[in-house]
Amino acid sequence: MAGQLRATLRATPTLLRVGVAETLAYRVEFVIWMLTTTLPLIMLGLWTSVAAQKPFANFGQREFVAYYVGALIVRNLTGSWVVWQLGDEIRRGMLSFRLLRPVHPFITYAATHISSVPMRGLVALPFAVILLFSTAGDLLITDPVLIGVLVVALLGAWLLTFFMLVMIGSVGLFVDKASAVFEVYLGIFAVLSGYLIPLALLPEWAQSIARWAPFRYMLAFPVELAIGFYHDRTDVLRDLGLQWLWVTAVIGAALAVWRAGIRRYEAFGS
Amino acid sequence: MTSLTRYGRLLGVQLRASLATSMQYRVDFVIEGAMSIWWLGWNLVPLLILYDQRDDVAGWNFPSALLVIAWFTVLRGLMEGAINPSLIGVVEKIRTGEFDYLLLKPADAQFLVSTTRFEPWNLVDIAGGIGLAVAAFVMLGSAPAPGDVLLGLILLFAAAMVLYSLWILIVSASFWVVRLDNLAYLFSAVFDAARWPIQVFRGVWRILFTLVIPLALMTTYPAMAMLGRLEARTALAALGGALVFAAISRFLWRAAIKSYTSASS
């Protein structure tokens, strides 16, 4: 166990370097891929013209701009393609090579994805600049404590998204159609995470589902925190606690699905 | 004329082959159909939220906006059922070199490439879209005039042509940059905006969705035609635009084929 931990720690810098090199090698594709997250911009166009004459619920144009640009940035930073990667490697049997390495596959996958974050940040940067210097910039939080919490919340959102997708990808070890599961997930995620519409605009009952479901903590929570939708620090701490509860639960679930799946996969491959 | 009947027969053969392939996966058929119905309802969420608080957005009330979504659903069914399954396969063929055999066949390559695969379960989408359109007219309380329906259908044909041409452009691009799945995803993401009437968007978005990626032509114009709101001039311009688009894509496809030097060389 200790030996494995040491091996993992020693391998990590190299894994990260390889990841960065890979991202740079496929930069055009990478940028096209990032451009695919246009949905917040389309929704932004829609809602700002709806809110042009009078505010919609509590949302004026300024709030919509802040919300959707924020959502775009968070989505860009936390996005992950591990479902496709896993599906592809399972289908083509490449997973066997990964299993031979002395480092847990979750670590090698995570390294690839973490090393794409700087490049992702670069793509998100222009949007951050727009957000800062538009009128919506006034909404951003300035309290240093909250900014610290925001960093932790973003990390939580990243972990939650990554392991949720690893879990869904691992379902591919059992069934051929993991992509169908993923599509259903995407649909539910779009509504309950606040990606499509700010959660505050959903009907009451849907909001209370969203509050307890994990999806909100992947996107809406950091966004709402950053643009000052929280008025009470205790609310922020409560939601942060919920987020990390979900993070632990989902990591546990992903590990369980993975372990059960690998046992099957080995039996199937040999 | 003989070549037309020949291509008609070829199309029949390809359709039958696709149908036979998909009948092997009967469970998929049921699952995909059920998913389509579920998505149909789920996709209405933003519309319901928006019209819960407003009666009218940019001149569109709820039933007429529903009609736009109906056209969007029909068109997406057409795209996912008849246009993009074949064309996504082309990339794989270019990469593996199988495309060379296709070029040797004594029929037009673009025709062969476009008809290799159909996914019949998307008929559920098309039926769902028609259902939404009927619901929209029931809510409006008036049936559309026959002439307007005809114009709507003609524009739907134009819309399908534009959509197809856009896909051919994407495939042509893949002769130069081999990985196209990303471009395809990008297009699908942008196409999603077509579920909203074009008048809802302003400024850059409006120009982009009218002229560059003509989403307006695909869903808003057919819906307006059925509501009897489309000016004859706009309809003609849309049809002309669709023809120009088709011509450009055909031209670029030919150029792409000419510069194609096969995977091995």
Can you tag this structure with a few keywords?
heterodimer, A: 270 residues, mainly alpha, 13 helices, globular, B: 265 residues, 12 helices
Polypeptide structure, described:
- The complex is a heterodimer of chains A (270) and B (265).
- Chain A has 270 residues and is an all-alpha fold.
- Chain A contains 13 helices and no strands.
- Chain A has helices at 2-25, 27-35, 39-50, 61-78, 82-92, 95-100, 105-114, 117-133, 144-171, 178-192, 204-212, 220-226, 233-269.
- Chain B is mainly alpha-helical.
- Chain B has one domain (2-259).
- Helices cover 76% and strands 0% of the residues of chain B.
- In chain B, helix 2 (26-42) packs parallel to helix 7, helix 4 runs antiparallel to helix 7 and helix 4 runs antiparallel to helix 11 (215-226).
- Chain B is globular and about 55 Å long.
- The mean pLDDT of chain B is 80.
- The A-B interface holds A 28-29, 32-33, 35-39, 42-43, 45-46, 48-50, 52, 56-57, 177, 180, 183-184, 187, 191, 196-197, 201-203 and B 28, 31, 35, 39, 42, 45-46, 49-50, 53-54, 57-58, 177, 179, 182-183, 185-186, 189-190, 192-193, 196, 200-203, 205.
* DSSP E strands of chain B, number: 0
User: Averaging pLDDT over every residue of chain A, what do you get?
Assistant: 82
Q: What is the strand content of chain B?
A: under 5%
Radius of gyration of chain B: 20 Å
Please provide the ordered H/E string of secondary-structure elements of chain A.
Answer: HHHHHHHHHHHHH
Arithmetic mean of pLDDT of chain B: 80
For the sheet with most strands of chain A, the description reads: none
Shape of chain A: globular
Which percent band covers the strand fraction of chain A? under 5%
Per DSSP E runs of 2 or more residues, the count of β-strands of chain A stands at 0
The low-confidence parts of chain A are: none
- Fraction in helix of chain A: over 70%
Structural domain tally of chain B: 1
Report the helical percentage of chain B.
over 70%
Give the overall shape of chain B. globular
**Would you tell me the structural class of the helices and strands of chain A?**
mainly alpha
| Classification by helices and strands of chain B | mainly alpha
